[in-house]
Amino acid sequence: MKKIFLSIFLLFSFSFAQKFEYDLNAKSVHMQDGILYIKTKKNQYKQIEFKNNKIKTSKYTPKKPAFKPRRLLRSSVVTSSANNIKHTWLYQQTLDYDHEILGDAIEAKSFAVILKDDTKLTHTLDKNFVFEDLRVRLYDIDEDGDDELFVIKTDVEKGASLAAYKVENKSIKQVATSGHLNRTYRWLNVVGFGDFDGNGIKNVAIVKTPHIGGVLTIYEYKNNKLIEKYSRYGFTNHFIGSTELDMGTVNDLDNDKIKEFILLKMNARTIKVANYKNKRYKELLTINNSSKVNSAILVKDLDNDGVKEIIYTLRNKKLVIYSHNFNKVNQ
User: Fold this and answer.
1) If we measure between CA atoms, which residue out of 112, 32, 15 comes closest to residue 307?
2) Cross-strand pairs, 127
């Protein structure tokens, strides 16, 4: 009887949790217009199609950006939206801060915005401040129909902070901050945005000091303030010197309109899927890997079966596709 029960349990378990590793010499993984592709060690691009637990690869040429400004911070990207802000980007390179956490000593002093009506606005920092980031994030966190702008702003003496900006009356103003880390050469990285506790108020999550004992920190955005709600030690979402900022993400995996966290532990081999429903942290899943994760962590239902896959690459150049039916777990 015990053997029968164990067989049924294992059959049920593996019916909603499967891990696939593909030796593709993959250096990184990306998503463009819903298309999944990898960059190989030989700097070739291959599109990945996943169906019936098998993959098909084909040559792929990533599209060039539709908009590229004349002045753009090296290694950074333009962020675009369909709301009030068409495009935003970092520029005005400076060597005022030699942290080199993103691969070089070049940071930005300014960001630019092109509004929906094609008005261009700019914002430049005062002395002793730099933008220690590679993009400005757009997200309508107060749900008023207009995007706020989020960017990592560093005081050269007090370290990094997450700063939130609004565009009002054709001007840019800072409206909120996470606060600086109170020491030079201390940095943070953004995880993502969404309703994490189910109270209907949007949040932003960051990892403070992801290289020396990262702290997942959740903020609630209310009345133009970032209010810290929760913190937990032991996570990372960045390697020193890397330009990859998305080694961790958030996504509504079980379709309950509350987003889960997909985060790396400090060893960079273990992925934790967790939530913060009802203001209580709960780990839902652990994914162990034999090699360190070295890419963005992406989430997409690749085979259109209603189950979202978690996708990433490892330092041993393997592509990993992890399928786990969280809807079955929660039924």
Assistant:
1) 15
2) none
CB-based contact 140:147 (threshold 8 Å): yes
Cα 286 to the center of its chain, rounded Å: 19
DSSP 256: S
CA–CA separation, 257 and 137 (whole Å):
21
- In whole angstroms, what is the distance from residue 213 CA to residue 210 CA? 6
Cα–Cα distance measured from residue 249 to residue 238, given in angstroms and rounded to the nearest whole number: 12
> Is 39 in contact with 27 (CB distance < 8 Å)?
yes
* Amino acid present at 78: V
Q: Which two tokens stand for residue 129?
A: 């401040």
What digits encode the pLDDT tens for the residues 156-199?
A: 999 999 999 999 999 999 999 999 999 999 999 999 999 999 99
The helix (run of H) or strand (run of E) holding residue 166 is strand 159-168
Could you report the per-residue pLDDT of 40-54, keeping only the tens digit for each?
Answer: 999 999 999 999 999
Record the tokens describing residue 287, joined without a space.
Answer: 């994914």
* SS3 state at 250: strand
Largest interatomic CA distance in the chain: 73
What angle (nearest 5°) sits at the alpha carbon of residue 130, between those of residues 124 and 133? 105
By residue count, the chain amounts to 331
Q: Compute the C-alpha angle 291/28/269, nearest 5°.
A: 20
Residues 6+ apart with CB under 8 A from 244: 28, 238, 294, 295, 296
What Rg, from alpha-carbon coordinates, does the chain have? 21
